[in-house]
Specification:
The protein is α+β, with helices and mostly antiparallel strands. Helices cover about 50% and strands about 10% of the residues. It folds into three domains: about 80 residues, TATA-Binding Protein, CATH 3.30.310; about 80 residues, Helix-hairpin-Helix base-excision DNA repair enzymes (C-terminal) (Endonuclease Iii, domain 2); about 120 residues, Hypothetical protein, domain 2 (Endonuclease III, domain 1, Orthogonal Bundle), CATH 1.10.340. A hairpin with a 2-residue loop joins strand 4 and strand 5. This is DNA-(apurinic or apyrimidinic site) lyase.
Length: about 325
DNA sequence: GCACAGGTAGATT
DNA sequence: AATCTACCTGTG
């Protein structure tokens, strides 16, 4: 009981300061080598987890702690590779298979990267060389949609804080004392007011409308995932609050469609500055990206985004 | 006080 | 069809 109270106190204090949650180490298993782990450079490991693809990873001490679906996992990189640990009692085989799906181990990102036009594109070459092993995550579809519905004109730390607040308020508790993101039914039941209390502002109305629709149409997102990319995109855009950019984020980070190329303010600036496309708007830039980067344009986008965040390319 | 931040939808030109 | 503008909230 005393332990529980202490944890809650710590959590609320940290929430106010918008710092990552910290959980009781005793609740976690020993570190285990992730034998199937993909190769990551240090930079790519951090950027893949905490670079704006997903909003539920936090640096804790010498590791990253993340959540998706009903999973809580800690990952740490050392000279032997990637190590993981999970709440005591979690089935190691289930964790392994959850990791395999989340990290899209069935996708050959090294091969997709090599097929990008880096040989003739020095900007892309710089970005790829700075983040060797960068991957596109394959996140649960609904969670990806929720995260990016929260994202408009918000910075990553704020999006993470909102996701955490909504999870604590509406989501199921997890074995380590943290919370999963809520289902659409849970969000719809909570309503717009509670979403606004999580500091969602004008996004709350869209998210509530989307949650009401999706909870009344179970299977709709899975049906969408079965469609070709352009048809899936059209359906996603029909949801309240989802435009081209958020739809492309969902296609890329939640459905593994590497051709999807989200253009946000960062990517717009990168393309304009690095490729001399002054005055180009979003639609022509999409055509440029498709033609120049090819079928894995979305992977190129992630390299460029990472490199721009690091101040390596497209500087003023 | 004010501009700006991983956008979208609706109005106006 | 292209270009505003409102919409919440936090940060600098």
């Amino acid at each position: 009981m005393a332990l529980h109270d202490q944890g809650c106190q710590r959590r609320s204090a940290r929430q106010k300061a918008e710092l990552p949650l910290e959980h009781v180490d005793l609740a976690f298993s020993d570190w285990q080598l992730w034998a199937d782990a993909p190769h990551f450079s240090r930079t790519a490991f951090a950027e893949t987890l905490d670079g704006g693809q997903a909003f539920r990873w936090n640096r804790i001490k010498n590791c990253f702690e993340g959540r998706w679906a009903k999973n809580t996992v800690r990952l740490r990189q050392d000279n032997s590779g990637i190590l993981w640990c999970a709440p005591t009692g979690d089935n190691p085989e289930a964790v392994g298979s959850a990791l395999a799906q989340y990290f899209a181990l069935d996708t050959d990102f090294a091969g997709q990267t090599d097929a990008l036009p880096w040989r003739s594109d020095p900007v892309l070459k710089t970005a790829i060389e700075a983040f060797p092993g960068l991957r596109i995550l394959r996140q649960p579809l609904g969670e990806t949609l929720f995260g990016f519905l929260c994202s408009s004109t918000k910075q990553i730390p704020q999006i993470k804080a909102i996701c955490e607040a909504v999870a604590i308020d509406m989501g199921d508790p997890l074995p380590d004392g943290s919370h999963a993101l809520p289902s659409w039914a849970q969000i719809a039941a909570a309503g717009e007011t509670r979403l606004r209390e999580a500091k969602l502002g004008y996004r709350a109305r869209y998210i509530n409308q989307t949650a009401v629709f999706l909870s009344q149409n179970p299977g709709w997102l899975d049906e969408t995932e079965a469609l070709p990319t352009s048809e899936a995109r059209q359906r996603l855009i029909s949801l309240p609050g989802v435009g081209r950019k958020i739809a492309d984020c969902v296609l890329l980070f939640g459905m593994g469609r590497l051709e999807a190329f989200p253009i946000d303010t960062w990517v717009q600036k990168i393309l304009v500055r690095a490729y001399g496309l002054e005055g180009w708007k979003s639609d022509p830039l999409l055509d440029f990206a498709r033609v120049h980067f090819g079928p894995s344009a979305g992977l190129a986008q992630q390299y460029l985004f990472a490199a721009a965040r690091a101040g390596l390319i497209a500087k003023k």
